[in-house]
Write a structure and sequence with these properties.
The structure is a homodimer of 204-residue chains.
Chain A: H1 7-17, H2 24-35, H3 39-55, E1 57-58, E2 65-66, E3 80-87, H4 90-99, E4 104-108, H5 126-134, E5 140-143, H6 149-162, E6 168-171, H7 187-195
Parallel strand pairs in A: 3-4, 3-5, 5-6
Antiparallel strand pairs in A: 1-2
């Protein structure tokens, strides 16, 4: 049992240790770093997370994180509101936005179906996706979940739920990644990349 | 340039990214973790660092971190106040306390002399150490700085400052560490460990 010379220090280190991937020694290092900063800077640091947690909203339509009731993307009339890209989480939205290749809207599930972790369809935003599609005006749903067993299970579950709506359902392409070395690519990926080959296009 | 769906999120991630060793991706992961916690828990987290920075004190005698003007160790009448152990920082005090082998008091320098980093004697609590010894009642000063060039420089500087006070000045033992393999121990350490050998003692 570590003995701390200050209870204030001990409490702050304890709080940092609760963060994922932050052990006791790292927590101590981070706290002592903050201790060397201006009072004002530390107040800004602490308030930034408190305000985020108190004031943050989730878009009523797509469940993406947002400062307003409807997120920037859903509120943007220049986006294609007939195309919904289904993703696991907020980081995935940000990653796809960064590619600047997608002009549709999103639907954030909040995870994937994972019986091992006790996550079933009702824990995810699948019901609201089915409702959204049911309201009409949707032409295509793009499934952009992780290429894992859980992702595939979730893809299949959503597919069945939407099958008789007549909406087009697509999945993002799977294949060899940019700069991957073929000899080290797993068989499933390499096999699929040959079966699902596309016409050579000089513009890509 | 990453585009964030929420300014509150962006600000919190920015603040975490300022911490040493925390990159953008880790900052995002930590912030999203906090976002999943109760509002109350996040308030406790944020307030713990703000309160630490606002309210923490440093002991007027030894400069160790403390919740009071005089730290627990300096205020403890059962400690040996005639023996001062000189260390670089707060973590070193905690490490030595954890050994439960030391009953004296401390003096926290706040670093070591390092011309490369622009740290000179006047940036450290060396003047206050000399004063403390000058007040009398001190029998021994133990130098427990890092076994580096900077630590050695600082040891030598302090030694010169205290040489004519008549106080006993000692340094912590250097040698092979517990469970070290001799064949991988550096020459300087191994050489010293032979020169500074001690009588075999069955109790150690």
């Amino acid at each position: 049992m570590q003995h701390y010379p200050s209870q204030l220090l001990e409490r702050a280190v304890e709080e940092f240790s609760k963060l994922p991937g932050i052990g006791g020694k790292t927590a101590m290092r981070l706290v002592l770093h903050l201790l060397r900063q201006d009072v004002k800077a530390v107040e800004v640091f602490g308030q930034s997370v408190i305000r985020l947690r108190q004031e943050v909203k989730f878009c009523q339509t797509c469940h993406n994180i947002s400062d307003t009731d409807t997120c920037e993307i859903c509120a943007n009339p220049r986006r294609d509101h007939a195309t919904i890209c289904v993703v696991e989480n907020i980081q995935d939205v940000m990653a796809i936005e960064n590619t600047q290749q997608y002009r549709g809207v999103y639907h954030v599930l909040g995870g994937v179906i994972s019986p091992m972790d006790g996550i079933g369809p009702s824990d995810l935003q699948i019901g609201s996706l089915v409702e959204r599609v049911g309201e009409g005006n949707i032409a295509e749903v793009i499934l952009a979940l992780s290429p894992t067993m859980e992702g595939d299970t979730t893809n299949f579950y959503i597919y069945r739920k939407l099958a008789d709506t007549g909406v087009k359902i697509s999945v993002i392409a799977r294949g060899v990644a940019q700069n991957d070395e073929l000899q080290y690519t797993d068989e499933v990926t390499l096999g699929r990349s040959i079966v699902n080959r596309t016409l050579f296009d000089v513009n890509l």
